[in-house]
Amino acid sequence: MTMRVGVPRGLLYHEYAPAIHTFLESCGAETVVSPQTNREILEKGLALCVDDACLPVKAFFGHAAVLSDQVDALFVARFVSVERGAYICPKFMGLPDMIRARLQNAPPIIDMCVDIRQGLGSYVSSLPCSDTCKILGVAPRRLSWAVGAALMAQRKEDRRRVKRFAPSGSAVARTGLGGYTRESIYETSLTIGVLGHAYNLDDAYLSLGLISKLEKMGVKAVTAEDYAYDNLRRWERRGADRKQVFWTAGRKLIGAARRWRETGEVDGMVHLTSFGCGPESFVAEVIARDAARHPAMPLIILNVDEHSGEAGMATRLEAFVDTVRMGKSKR
Question: Which is the most buried residue in 102, 128, 315, 324, by most CB within 10 A?
């Protein structure tokens, strides 16, 4: 009988779904993903999670709760690092333990550790696979093969995503780091760069439909996920302070903000943050300080939690977009 493994549709699932699906299917498991976030799921998460966690973590608890009585096991990876010399949010490291502690009668949790601080080769050769193999019922060799297949699937998706984001317009005017000028990249009248974690921006419920709201205003929205990570890392290193942040997601957002500011690819920036996110409070400060040095690039920071409402966000977005449009018409 095929094992049914539940995958909560939250947090890093939004970035690593291809790898997660390929890994579990390569181990012979059937993947069951929770529904899109809704009020019921969030309410379950709020009841289970500690109060000082950020909104996406609370929602993740709700997704896990929805799946708990439908599957044979839950996949809650222990993300520590996805690149050399950088980390993921500390709450992600303890997420499997938090789920075990708060979710009553939870099925077995596959808490496979993802830690690539010392390099990918070192990680694959030292997979701590005993518990994962036992739950999934596979041999260590098959587990290692499944990890390799998952990495290949993720790389393929990353290349496809970046290739899909092919700038349109007139002659290509490149900067030294592969940027495009505002005149050449888009034919639309207004382009806004949207900063924020993928698990917020890709979740229409948590982000209060931010992307769709911008599109309804006739705005072209682009995010950091539309660019190759290596390119954004080069931009992130160009900062005046030369101090590197410790978090992969933070590096990506700072790099995107600096690229947009220097190339003029976008007319303004919207930064969506989650109340209670420790790393993002620091990253948002770095982005805001950079913006203060370049006041010609408008920036608005929108903070969301479980009490945020769509009406308030819509009002602030409309005012911001109108301001950007007026400023662009005067240039």
Answer: 324
